[in-house]
Design brief:
The protein is mostly beta strands and 86 residues long. It has one domain. Helix content is 6%, strand content 49%.
Amino acid sequence: MVFPAAISVRTVDDAILSFGSVYEKDAVMLNKRGRLAWSRPDAGRVVLAGTLYSAPVTIRLERIDTGKMLLLSRGFHWINEMPFNR
């Protein structure tokens, strides 16, 4: 399995932080600024817990239904007679 060399995180104030990532057996190292261990409480969720910039963090990831994404549910159209966002 190939893992990405970088991770982007959107914070609660909508800032986007990017980190180089190195994967271990049960954790991910982010730019040597933190180490987050992961766990899978169930098939639809992943929890990352550890430290980032010397502060404790817990990140909860939840699988989303890709069928509900607008591009997949509405379909792709090269030309729109009327803009969809109006």
